[in-house]
Amino acid sequence: MKKMQLIDESFLDKCKQRFLDLCEKKVPWGSLTMMKDISLSKKGAVGEHLYYKVQDFVYDSVLFEYCRHPTILDYIECFTGPDIMAIHTMLINKPPDSGSLTSRHPLHQDLHYFPFRPANRIVCAWTAMEDITPENGCLVVLPGSHKGKLLQHDYPEWENGVNKMYHGVRGFDDHPIMELSMTKGDTVFFHPILIHGSGPNRTQGFRKAISCHYSCAEMEFIDIQGTSQENIAKEIEEVTKRRGLELNFQDFWKFRSRLVRGQQAVK
Ligand SMILES: O=C(O)CCC(=O)C(=O)O
Ligand SMILES: [Fe+2]
């Protein structure tokens, strides 16, 4: 589902400024995660040219307003019901590609990252923070793929390396894809099984989008042992350990989610 100019431009400009302030360390990072592009990092890029993502902004006073946007939540409620958690937050910046094509995002299903179900009660809102086209790396989707199953994900074998956590599915490169050109403020809502990704940014400008995954408050956490999600669980647990948190995959997701409407589930 795509909604035209759902979010107003001045709010998106505020988010952009927040991102720039974070890149330049003008505001403390706190519990935010700032991620560096692997090839731009090797080339010595800094600031907006280096960071491709800020995650975990549910406690950031500026960016969290996106997750609580009343119009977005009215659409989200159709999928989740009245008690809504923001579970995964990202502002994705695509700096001009260094020529190594690391600004691509491989085709994937977001459910790969989530140890809770049911999938039909999870939905992503993704808003273009500027005009986004095939040239600067728009979203690409495989229409109808949300009716499929969760597939095996691994790091793609790209010549110049792959950014952290960019796992992808294999065998879909020849499938017909749909490119989602969007103007600033346009928002897409999509299912966590939908196969999607994004192309490289071949322009000299930046491409930014802000997104939040939501779920109903009463999700069931699942044991992913013996499933295709073991590899991402292991990777996430290693990262949290390095940060001194020692959270398991399930607790990691509980820790970073926040109620945005209705009531928290009591368990
Ligand atoms: O904004 C993009 O390029 C796609 C991001 C995405 O699908 C993700 O991080 O899961
Ligand atoms: Fe995704």
TrEMBL record:
Enzyme class label: oxidoreductase
Cofactor(s) needed: L-ascorbate; Fe cation
One example of a Gene Ontology biological process annotation: fatty acid alpha-oxidation
GO molecular function, one term: phytanoyl-CoA dioxygenase activity
Keywords, sorted A to Z: Dioxygenase, Iron, Metal-binding, Oxidoreductase, Vitamin C
EC number of this enzyme: 1.14.11.18
Name by which UniProt lists this protein: phytanoyl-CoA dioxygenase
